Amino acid sequence: MQNAQQQYPGHLIAVFYIAFTVLAFSSIEIIVNPVRNDIAPFLMNFWRFLVAVLILLPTLLWKHRARLRELRREDLRDLTFLGCLNILLAMGAHAICIKYSRASTAAILISANPLATNFFAWLILREEMTLKRILALLLGFSGVILISLKSDGAVDTPLGVGTGIVALAGFGLYTVLSKRLVHKHGGLTVMVISCIPALTIYLPLLYLLGIDILPPSHTWPNILGAGILGTGLGYISFMKVLGFLPAGRSSYLFFFKPPVAIFFAWLLLGEKISETAVMGTLLIMAGILTEIKRAGQKPQSA
């Protein structure tokens, strides 16, 4: 079992890990968007996670072989469920959202997942729900609603926005349900081992949907970029952040995705920055700042 929190690595290294995590996670939608009409969303999702697993697996086998031998049947069952919840439901919905909405919209919606995490933590784990925490949730979800209402039929479809909301809720539930297993086995073990059975289940689903397992050749740079940078290295960096920040506070890194994603989408994809998108982003970030201020008023636990 890993320690709840590691030694603080120093300001410079901490800032590097935090900044890299935000940039890596914000890059996924930007990398995938240019080929969203050339590859099926589920196929992109499958290959993105497969590439990430192939990147992370050597590190897991090298550093944590003893931990792998300790896994029991019930652990594998729980990890399989977590992987299916994450890859098939949450990230599957997110892949559809990327295809049928703006890259910035998809990034903003998934970045609101800490709000769902707080809700499910209250509902399932019975964590305290104070007035300030409720205010943070209301501010954040108001931002999500505002972003949803600004849909432009040419780029933001109801399907895209709807699946984006499913994705943020699914990932929030995944975060809450994985809390015990991450504490017991470590984040890297949970990530890799939960993905392997989920990806195995993915194969017959692709066959039933009539989707060729091999993507178009010109999409490989985007697949590798999203898999290596956005998913593999991004997750390793996020695990480093989890090592020196409390887990709840670390999840709020996702709230820094909106401004970064909107800027990248404007700079690299030429997407226009709408006033409603800016207002929605400000409301979401107001929610996280309210929660950080609330959390800072009492002792933190990992």
Question: Can you describe this structure?
Answer:
With 302 residues, the chain is an all-alpha fold. Helix content is 76%, strand content 0%. The chain has one domain. Helix 2 packs antiparallel against helix 4, helix 6 crosses helix 8 and helix 8 crosses helix 9.
Describe the secondary-structure layout.
Layout: H1 11-32, H2 41-63, H3 65-69, H4 73-99, H5 103-111, H6 113-124, H7 131-149, H8 158-185, H9 187-208, H10 220-244, H11 247-251, H12 257-269, H13 275-295
Helix pairs in contact: 1-5, 1-10, 1-12, 2-4, 2-9, 2-10, 4-5, 4-8, 4-9, 5-8, 5-12, 6-7, 6-8, 7-13, 8-9
Low-confidence stretches: 1-5
By secondary-structure content and strand pairing, the structural class works out as mainly alpha
Number of helices: 13
Q: What is the radius of gyration computed over CA atoms, rounded to a whole number of angstroms?
A: 18 Å
Which H/E pattern describes the elements? HHHHHHHHHHHHH
Mean pLDDT: 80
Number of strands: 0
Could you provide a short overview of the structure?
The protein is mostly helical. 76% of the residues lie in helices and 0% in strands.
